[in-house]
């Protein structure tokens, strides 16, 4: 293996965190803001890029690699946590919103997983966080994730986060599923990813589910989330802008009671 080999356990239900066990001199990398807690004896270091050693030679190569990460909504810098002590040490990384943390053993998944932007949480040192350009114009324009997604490359453990419940679906060769574009968490590199027009004027105007499906065709593995963060944010904003009857209404709190909203 080229990547550091780490042990882990995922703790919690709705708001999960992953606890990583580091042997002496083992390192985990994470996005800024993912850190939760760690044992004494772990050294923290901010690094430029992902620390995988695949940025190319010299400053220009590192700048190019870090610039690619900015395109997928990630920071120019990552944080490396190294066990500099004599025994095992533990470090924990927390999910940013309600959902599930998905462990990805890249050595068992063909070495590459393509996932939505901002999905990456943490990984063993050596895993490369790259970009994946959608080669088809239609997929890039209407696929929900734009032209660019994240590509995790390596042979170690990586952890991504998704909203709500997560379904893992293994597709046989030629098997095809249609998924809401925002509900895709990730898929293995052999999956053929495209979009399809919903069709029908009534479906397009009144369906409420968008104009396009994402189509994913096997062979490979697909991860699907039930609650994309964009959908959650939209609902929160809609409730936040809704004016209740008690706010300036003649009925006041009585109007909310009649609606079944309580006081």
What does this structure look like?
There is one protein chain. The strands form four sheets. Strands 5-6-3-10-13-8 form a six-stranded antiparallel β-sheet. Strands 11-12-9-16-19-14 form a six-stranded antiparallel β-sheet. By secondary structure, it is an alpha+beta fold. It has a single domain, classed as Mitochondrial biogenesis AIM24 (Double-stranded beta-helix). The longest helix is centred in the N-terminal third of the chain and has 14 residues, at 58-71. Helices cover 17% and strands 41% of the residues.
Short structural summary:
The protein contains five helices and 19 strands. By secondary structure, the protein is of the alpha+beta class.
In the CATH hierarchy, what is the class?
Alpha Beta
What is the averaged pLDDT score? 79
Head-to-tail CA distance between termini: 60 Å
What class would the helix/strand composition place it in?
Answer: alpha+beta
Helical fraction equals: 10-25%
CATH H-level superfamily: Mitochondrial biogenesis AIM24
Tally of extended strands? Answer: 19
Query: How many domain regions?
Result: 1
Strand percentage lies at: 35-45%
List the secondary-structure elements in sequence, H or E: EEEEEHEEEEEEHEEEEEEHEEHH
Strand neighbour order, sheet with most strands: 5-6-3-10-13-8
Tally of contiguous helical segments: 5
Low-confidence stretches: 139-146, 203-209, 245-251
CATH fold-type name: Double-stranded beta-helix
């Amino acid at each position: 293996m080229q990547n550091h080999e780490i042990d882990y356990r995922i703790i919690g239900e709705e708001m999960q965190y992953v606890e990583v066990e580091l042997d002496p001199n083992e390192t985990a990398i994470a996005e800024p803001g993912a850190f939760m807690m760690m044992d004494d004896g772990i050294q923290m270091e901010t690094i430029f890029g992902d620390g995988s050693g695949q940025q190319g030679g010299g400053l220009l190569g590192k700048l190019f690699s870090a610039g690619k990460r900015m395109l997928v909504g990630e920071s120019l810098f990552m944080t490396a946590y190294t066990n500099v002590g004599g025994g095992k040490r533990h470090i924990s990384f927390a999910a940013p919103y309600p959902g599930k943390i998905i462990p990805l053993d890249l050595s068992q998944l063909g070495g590459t997983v393509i996932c939505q932007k901002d999905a990456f949480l943490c990984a063993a040192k050596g895993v490369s966080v790259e970009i994946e350009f959608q080669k088809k114009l239609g997929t890039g324009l209407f696929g929900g994730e734009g032209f660019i997604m994240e590509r995790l490359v390596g042979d170690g453990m990586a952890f991504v986060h998704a909203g709500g419940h997560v379904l893992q679906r293994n597709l046989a060769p030629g098997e095809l599923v249609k998924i809401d574009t925002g509900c895709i968490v990730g898929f293995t590199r052999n999956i053929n990813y495209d979009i399809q027009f919903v069709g029908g004027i009534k479906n397009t105007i009144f369906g409420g589910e968008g104009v396009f499906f994402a189509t994913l065709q096997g062979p490979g593995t697909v991860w699907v989330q039930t609650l994309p963060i964009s959908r959650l944010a939209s609902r929160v904003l809609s409730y936040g802008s809704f004016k209740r009857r008690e706010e300036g209404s003649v009925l006041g709190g009585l109007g909310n009671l009649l609606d079944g909203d309580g006081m």
